[in-house]
Specification:
By secondary structure, this protein is α/β, with parallel strands linked by helices. It is built from seven helices and 13 strands. The chain folds into three domains: about 70 residues, Helix Hairpins; about 60 residues, HSP40/DNAj peptide-binding domain (Sandwich); about 80 residues, Sandwich (HSP40/DNAj peptide-binding domain), CATH 2.60.260. Helix content is about 35%, strand content about 30%. A four-stranded mixed sheet has the order 2-3-7-6. Strands 8-9-13-12 form a four-stranded mixed sheet. A three-stranded mixed sheet has the order 1-4-5. The chain is elongated and about 80 Å long. The chain starts with a helix and ends with a helix.
Length: about 230
């Protein structure tokens, strides 16, 4: 569902604020609720989906207006290896400083640009090292692409929609359609490692796995969303 369609479903304009959207949702939900005369389950589902879509859009706009204060840059200590410079995925993605101890015992600080790949060469003093991007928990790099593993409610995977995911790269809003839910994979184009030299721009992949716990039915989850939205 597009934002335009969502506004049409609730009968609000593009300039409608959160309060107006909430009031419009409640009125539309009353009319469409399956337990009321003239109600329609499909129409009710559209009303709930439209409300959540407009909520998410509003939150994204608010987040974009906020000033993000980055924590102080820190130096990543790379594990000493002969001929290799091991770096974590976040350094490969954003650049930063790493430490490396040479075979003669000297400890060097190295500033690396964003977009380093496994196999790239770095010269430290008179020594040439080969970069190796290591995995870091649920975050890893494959070639040009960044992969993140996340766990979601099984019902959420089955229903799909716009989902906010907390990841090592911060909060990301992804769209999970039926196909993505079945495959357990979502791709965000152009959000992987940045282009650098001969390397092309990479993509960001989310590997989706069902969280352990009781699996709700789609109808129960829909009603739960409705109740949460109604109370908001």
């Amino acid at each position: 569902m597009s934002l335009k369609k969502a506004r049409e479903v609730l009968g609000v304009s593009q300039k409608a604020g959160p309060g107006e959207v909430r009031r419009a949702f409640r009125e539309a939900a009353k009319r469409a609720h399956p337990d009321r005369p003239g109600g329609n389950p499909e129409r009710f589902r559209q009303v709930v989906d439209a409300y959540h879509l407009l909520q998410t859009s509003s939150a994204e706009r608010a987040a974009a207006r906020d000033t993000v204060i980055q924590p102080p840059a820190r130096t990543e200590r790379a594990a000493p290896q002969d001929g290799r410079l091991s770096i974590p995925p976040l350094i490969a993605l954003n650049g930063g400083k790493v430490e490396h101890r040479l075979t003669d015992g000297r400890l060097l600080n190295v500033s690396l640009p964003a977009g380093m790949r496994t196999g790239d060469k770095v010269r430290l003093d008179t020594t040439e090292l080969e970069v190796a991007v290591r995995g870091d928990g649920d975050l890893l790099v494959r070639g040009n692409d960044v992969w993140i593993s996340v766990s979601l409610d099984p019902a959420m995977l089955a229903e799909g929609g716009r989902i906010a995911v907390d990841s090592p790269l911060g909060r990301k809003v992804i769209w999970v359609d039926r196909k993505a839910g079945e495959r357990g994979l979502v791709r965000l184009e152009g959000q992987g490692l940045p282009a650098r030299g001969r390397h092309r721009q990479g993509h960001l992949f989310f590997r989706l796995a069902p969280a352990t716990g009781k699996v709700d039915s789609a109808a129960r989850t829909l009603l739960r969303r409705f109740a949460a939205a109604w109370a908001a």
